Each structure stands twice: as structure tokens, then as C-alpha cells.
Amino acid sequence: MQALQFSRTGDLAAVQCVEVPVPVAAPGQLLVQVKAAGLNPSDVKNVLGRFPYTTLPRIPGRDFAGVVVDGPQEWVGQEVWGTGSDLGFFNDGSHAAYLTVPNGGVARKPQSLSFAQAASLGVPYTTAWDALERSGVSAGTRVLVIGGNGAVGSAALAFARIRGAQVLAAVRKPEQAQALRAKGYETLVLDQPEGLGAQVHAVFEGGAEVIFDTTGFWLPAAVGALAKFGRIAIIAAPVEGYVQLPALGLYRKGGSVVGVNSLLYDCAACARMLEHFGGYFDQGLLALPEGLLEVPLSEGPQRFAEVNAGSSDKVILIP
User: Fold this and answer.
1) How far is 31 from 68, CA to CA, in rounded Å?
2) Percent of the chain with pLDDT over 70
3) What is the C-alpha separation between 20 and 283, in angstroms, rounded?
């Protein structure tokens, strides 16, 4: 089969399109014919050596959609989607024509999603879902999503609205705010960090009960916008990994910080998340993904470089 593979880290030139044997499903596994696979920034970082536990040689890729071709009879022929930390790091991932996953490591694909659409959602949507779950977002919760225009942020806004929360988005650019307002979200344009508290308190009396910072840069400022006993969820940090946190303000409010890391969840755990929210697509509660860039798997090495260079395209690799 055709697959992307890298045998060293630290250089994206290591990603090559190669021919390798089709994997065989061991007892307790499914063999999935991959119809589409998502390319995420974490896949690029993996090749660059940011995950020291990755074993080599390795086929990268976490997100996929496809058809089960071997395994328990009740799964054979089923259209499925999946993602998880056990793909692409110490087991071969989704950037290939076939992959194996544990039984229970996939969910049935929503009928309304194409394979490419389903493959675009795994990492960002499970991340957003986990952030809301672990920060306790429910009906009536006052939620601020910083970076609401991004893949994770837009998913978080949609999930929060479905849960009945009071939702506020924050973005950098007026045109981003205009686009979110057109979707019915109250939105503010970020200015100076020291002004965030006043901006949020002007919308949410008493502050936001949950603040989800998808950017990694607004954690210190978020403390001033937080309600009593509020929670700040984060998924990123500056490159050096450190921020100056106003601890006095945080503890006086009884606030807490929730680290959200999708790599803490294997395929089975992610499959349960996909099952939870997958039905929202078929019910018309979640918008179908648009603007995907579908390319042949053979273009993978080039696309890795483009994502690393900052391309905003959501690349879907088609074996």
C-alpha cells in the first residue's frame, strides 16, 4: 500500500511517500481502509521531533475516516471515523491506505458527513469537546472562547451553544468578528490584554464562568475576566512554554486552570467522544465542514511543509 513515512525527526524532508505492506489485523483489532485522513499541526510537530516518545520508522496521522474491512463481523463494511493518541506516535497512523486500530477504537461515521469531512474533525472537535466537559460547561454557563475563529474555537462555540450556554467569542480582527456575528455569536474584538476584563464584564455581569483560551497568549489577561470560582481552559502556550500568571487574582476568585491535551486520549476514548457529538451533524445542530483542501496522499510531503509554514488550509489526504 501507499503510505507516508518518516525514519528520522527534526526535518520535514524526512517525510516520504513509500510502498509498505498492508497491515494485518491482530486479534482485538480492526483493519480500516482509509478513505480520507486529516493533516493536523501536531502531525507536523511529530516529524519535527516535538514528541520524544515517537518510535521510528513511523507512519504519521491521527484523524481518519474509512471502511472496516477486517475484524469482528458486526464491524466489517461499516463506515467509521476515528482519532487518538495511539496513532502516529508509537503505532502507525492514518496517512496510509490502510491502518489497524483496537476494537472499540472507531465510531460509526455520521451519515451527513463525507469521508473527507469526517476526517477533518477528529483532533479539533475532540479537543473542544474535552475542554467543555472538563471545565463544566452546561445550560446557562457564561462562556468566553478566545480564538473563536479557529478550528478548535469554532467547535467550542458550537458545542457550547448546543449545551445551552451563554456564549461570547473573542477574535483579533474585525472581519473575523463579523463572520462570527453572522453565525449568531456575540463577539468582541480583542484589544490590549489589560482591557480584556472590562470588555468581558461589559457583556457578562460578574465575568465569564468559563474562559477557553485556544491561543496560548491570553491566560494572564483571562484572570481579570473570570467570575468567582471560574475555570480557564488552555490548549497551547508560548513557544518557550511559560507565562506570567497573576496568582493573587486567580486565588482570590477561587479560579482554576484546566490543561486540555488531546494526546491524553487513545482511540477508544476518542471514539466515545465522537459517538457523543457525531449525531449532532445528522440532526442539523452542527454545520458541515466547508473549504477543505482534498489532495492525493502522494502530495503529503509538500503539504506537511505548507502547514509548517503557516498555511490555513485544512488539508485532507486521499489515499
Assistant:
1) 6
2) 100
3) 40
The confidence score (pLDDT) of residue 237 equals: 81
Return the SS3 of 295. strand
Distance of CA 275 to the CA centre of its chain: 16
In this prediction, residue 239 has a pLDDT band, given cuts at 50, 70 and 90, of confident
**CA distance linking residue 228 with residue 234, whole number of Å:** 18
**Mean pLDDT computed over 114-125:** 98
DSSP helix, strand, coil percent of the chain (3-state; round to 5): 30, 25, 40
Q: Read off the pTM.
A: 0.96
DSSP-derived 3-state class of residue 250: helix
User: What is the average per-residue pLDDT within 159-182?
Assistant: 98
- The answer to whether 28 and 102 are in contact (CB under 8 A) is yes
What whole-number distance in Å separates Cα of residue 259 and Cα of residue 244?
16
Long-range interactions of 305-313: CB distance < 8 A, separation 24+: 305/12, 307/39, 307/41, 307/43, 307/44, 308/12, 308/44, 308/48
